[in-house]
Amino acid sequence: PGPEVRPGAAAEYDFLVGPQHELAGRLDEAIAAYGRAAEKDPDSAYLQRKVGALAWRRGELDRPPSRAQRAHDLDPEDPDGRVFLGQSHRLRKQTVEAEAVLRGPEGQPVSRDAALLLYGMYVDGGRIEEALGIARWLIREDPENLRAYFALARAYEELGRFEEAEQALRDALEQDPGSLSVYSALARLHRDRNDRDAEIGIYREMLLEYPHHQGTLAALADALIATSRSAEAREVLEELVRYHGDDVRSVIRLALLEFDAGDYESAADRFDAALSENPEDHEIAYFLGVLRQRMGEVDEALAAFERIPEHPGRYADARTQIATLFERRGDYARAIEQARIAMRVAPSRALELYVARLRAKQGDLEGAVGMLEAALAEDPDDDDLLYNIGVLYGEAKQFEEALRYM
Asked: Which helix (H) or strand (E) segment is 253 a member of?
């Protein structure tokens, strides 16, 4: 009970108040509390750093540098204080000053954190050879630290020395066999070089360590699809779905591969099963509708498209598909109705042209041309409009008008 600000209380009191505000996300109050502690204990380098660090988190750029310098002046040998001051110099692009405070008398980094800060500065500044030296220093200091090997690999990669980058990551695997993060870095290294076969090899290697691993199977399927190895991708996705049946995205991808391969029945069964498990997944309903449409099952396709409510992103696409189904039946009035709904939700020139074509098929050539002429009045140089008006007249056997627009 009582006021929070107590000038007569020791610095430790304010130091205990600060974390309560910090944990609750009240940075202004936390900074004020630590600031009061620093005023009562002006020789505490830690409190100076604390105030500066919180000010940074709050987005202030003016206060931290003076706090960082004050903390360093109070305790010049403190590695944490030197890193804090180095960060301050780096933010102000004072590279020389940052290097001076982050390195010791013999030129070595004063700590691993200082080394990482120097490494980042050198990479950002294009000084890759120096970054390479820092990464090697980190590995000598802490051979089990994976971050050091990642740093070394990145430096080699920046220099175009990809074999050495891969070796650095392989060395990391020796320190931490089976590390998924290292394997992922190896796969990315090959993917960025567009060596998809080597990337695929890494995923297969990962699966030896982690059979049926969901993320690895998904990445392997991506790589196989990207290299047009659809049959292998289907096998991988079948394994993924078998062991991770709740992965709806993979179910959809597998069904689409089956669809592309002409295995419509299998794809339909898979979509039906997925939709029964996820009745609110409108993406599945849409693809099922497309599939049923391809199979010539019009009523089933309409039922699937009708499941999609107005707000999801597939609504306009579904209404357009319904319009094409009615068009095939010769029911142009309902086709126009559905196409107009789609156009209201997602206006586009393609839908506008489609509605005009449907009106012409319905026998309303004058209305169809008038609709496109109105759009042409707003954009007289639109080639698509001119061309499509010509097509409408051509289909109506009015060749003089068709030629004029063409």
From this structure: helix 248-260
152 and 178 Cβ atoms separated by less than 8 Å: no
Burial class (CB in 10 A: 0-12, 13-18, 19+), 75: middle
Whether residue 236 contacts residue 218, with contact meaning beta carbons closer than 8 Å, is answered with no
Q: Taking the mean position of all CA atoms in its chain, how far away is CA 128?
A: 27
Tens-place pLDDT, residues 363-383: 999 999 999 999 999 988 899
pTM value is 0.72
Contacts of 59 (CB under 8 A, 6+ apart): none
* pLDDT given for residue 91 in this prediction: 85
Residue 52's Cβ-side half-sphere holds a number of Cα atoms within 13 Å equal to 25
Q: What is the pLDDT at residue 277?
A: 86
- Taking the C-alpha atoms of residue 316 and residue 320, their distance in angstroms, rounded to an integer, is 6
User: Looking at the predicted structure, is the pLDDT value of residue 210 above 90?
Assistant: yes
What is the pLDDT at residue 331?
A: 95
User: Which letter does DSSP use for residue 308 in this model?
Assistant: S
What percentage of the chain exceeds 90 in pLDDT? 85
3-state secondary structure of 8: coil
Summary mean pLDDT of the chain: 93
Q: What is the C-alpha to C-alpha distance for residues 351 and 251, in angstroms, rounded to an integer?
A: 31
Instruction: Name the one residue in this structure whose structure tokens are 């990207």.
Output: 226
Distance CA 123, CA 137 (A): 15
Q: Which residues contact 19 (CB under 8 A, 6 or more apart)?
A: 30
DSSP 63-130: HHHHHHHHHHHH-TT-HHHHHHHHHHHHHTT-HHHHHHHHB-TTSSBSSHHHHHHHHHHHHHTT-HHH
User: Pick from 323, 336, 396: which is nearest to 371 by CA?
Assistant: 336
CA distance 406 to 402: 6
What is the radius of gyration, based on Cα positions, of the chain?
A: 33
pLDDT tens, residue by residue, 97-108: 999 999 999 999
